[in-house]
């Protein structure tokens, strides 16, 4: 055989081998990406734990998206969003000594929206002045106090909520109440303040439960990066916080489950690895599903994401997560009970549910498979 031909055949063979090895490498990476061990929160066997009761006209449209705190006796308190037959969102209360069975529940709202802080003026409403899930896609209400989050700091319960007065006014309000008053059912809330500016739709703002470098942190965005405003005193905020986050779902991680990011879930929880933050996102391949993931933020600089879940840890697969608005799991409260993380979430914009896991199991999975480069 001609030497030149032999050399050409050898070169061709080497090129084929190189292409094959490259292809195998790509396949291995894809396999590694899509076949990481999945981790899922475990749903409570008695879900949903709270559902609308017809005797309470103020929660006819739904009971969902609860804030959750633990008091100094270990009792778990939920401050849940309730939509009435009038289409207004108010806050109800339920409590449980074990965080599982919520037998104590308020007969009436424990927090009512005020004019300018969520109570819509019908004369200024842009859209139907009634319960209308087709127009008001965030639960169906046309105004009120939506999607509360809460933390306990120095004997006070600080609650943020969305003061919704129609799509032209979607702002974050902050109020507080003494923990002792909450425990005793004395609903002496401080007058709310609006901490987001007018004309800038805002949702999913959460407060860190303790100071970071001597100041209180208010997380107001996780896309395109984590954005936090630090304040000296939560009781004396006098000017709105200007968030650079654009309204609506924003681009997330390419080729991941969270390529469309919605926002933060419950307030962050401090762990041995950093701040655990649950969040909501969607996948362009399944745009009709609202999913929950987790990330760990640096303890001293929580704008840094250290670990992030490679897959969603809760997806809307149960029937009660597809009841009102199909395909929604929305976590807004989380508490560590013993060694377990209990996540309280809204299912289908209709029910309150629990999903849980041993906290260390979730953290170890995030650290092993979710390191951010």
What can you tell me about this protein's structure?
By secondary structure, the chain is mostly beta strands. The protein folds into two domains: 1-35; 36-369, 5 Propeller (Tachylectin-2, Chain A), CATH 2.115.10. The chain contains three helices and 21 strands. It has helices spanning 3-34, 179-183, 359-369, and strands at 42-43, 62-70, 76-83, 88-96, 104-105, 143-153, 156-164, 170-178, 193-194, 206-207, 216-221, 227-231, 250-251, 260-264, 269-271, 274-283, 286-297, 305-308, 329-337, 340-347, 351-358. The strands form four sheets. Strands 2, 3, 4, 5, 6, 7, 8 and 9 form an eight-stranded mixed beta sheet that branches. Strands 13, 14, 15, 16, 17 and 18 form a six-stranded antiparallel beta sheet that branches. Strands 1-21-20-19 form a four-stranded antiparallel beta sheet. A hairpin with a 3-residue loop joins strand 20 and strand 21 (351-358). It is globular, with a radius of gyration of 23 Å. The N and C termini lie far apart (52 Å). Residues 24-34 have low confidence and may be disordered.
How many helices? The count is 3
Q: CATH superfamily assignment of the largest domain?
A: Glycosyl hydrolase domain, family 43
List the uncertain runs: 24-34
Extended strand count: 21
How many structural domains can be distinguished in the coordinates? 2
Tell me the Rg in angstroms.
23 Å
Strand content: 35-45%
Share of helical residues:
10-25%
> What CATH architecture of the largest domain do you see?
5 Propeller
Estimated structural class: mainly beta
Average pLDDT for all residues: 90
CATH topology of the largest domain: Tachylectin-2, Chain A
Instruction: Just give the CATH class of the largest domain.
Output: Mainly Beta
**Major sheet details:** 8 strands, mixed
Distance between the termini: 52 Å
**SSE topology string:** HEEEEEEEEHEEEEEEEEEEEEEH
């Amino acid at each position: 055989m001609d030497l030149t031909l032999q050399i050409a055949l050898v070169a061709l063979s080497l090129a084929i081998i190189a292409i094959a090895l490259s292809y195998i490498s790509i396949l291995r990476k894809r396999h590694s990406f899509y076949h990481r061990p999945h981790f899922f929160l475990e749903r409570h066997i008695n879900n949903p734990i709270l559902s609308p009761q017809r005797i309470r006209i103020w929660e006819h449209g739904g009971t969902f998206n609860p804030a959750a705190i633990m008091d100094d006796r270990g009792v778990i308190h939920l401050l849940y969003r309730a939509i009435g037959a009038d289409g207004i969102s108010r806050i109800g209360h339920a409590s449980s000594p074990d965080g599982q069975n919520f037998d104590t529940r308020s007969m009436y709202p424990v927090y009512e929206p005020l004019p300018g802080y969520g109570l819509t003026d019908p004369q200024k409403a842009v859209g139907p002045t009634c319960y209308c899930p087709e127009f008001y896609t965030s639960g169906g209400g046309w105004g009120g106090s939506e999607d509360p989050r809460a933390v306990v700091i120095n004997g006070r319960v600080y609650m943020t909520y969305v003061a919704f007065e129609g799509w032209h006014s979607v702002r974050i309000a902050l109020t507080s109440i003494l923990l002792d008053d909450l425990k005793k059912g004395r609903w002496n809330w401080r007058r709310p303040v609006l901490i987001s500016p007018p004309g800038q739709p805002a949702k999913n703002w959460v407060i860190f439960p303790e100071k970071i470098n001597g100041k209180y942190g208010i997380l107001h965005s996780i896309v395109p990066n984590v954005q936090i405003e630090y304040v000296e005193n939560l009781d004396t905020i006098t000017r709105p916080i200007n968030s650079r986050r654009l309204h609506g779902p924003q681009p997330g991680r390419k080729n991941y489950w969270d390529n469309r990011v919605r926002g933060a879930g419950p307030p962050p929880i401090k762990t041995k690895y950093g701040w655990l933050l649950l969040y909501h996102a969607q996948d362009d391949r399944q745009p009709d599903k609202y999913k929950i993931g987790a990330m760990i933020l640096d303890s001293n600089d929580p704008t840094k994401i250290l670990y992030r879940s490679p897959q969603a840890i809760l997806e809307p697969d149960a029937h009660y997560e597809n009841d009102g608005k199909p395909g929604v799991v929305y976590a807004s409260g989380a508490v560590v009970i013993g060694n377990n993380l209990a996540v309280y979430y809204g299912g289908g914009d209709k029910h309150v549910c629990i999903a849980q896991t041993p906290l260390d199991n979730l953290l170890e999975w995030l650290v092993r498979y979710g390191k951010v480069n």
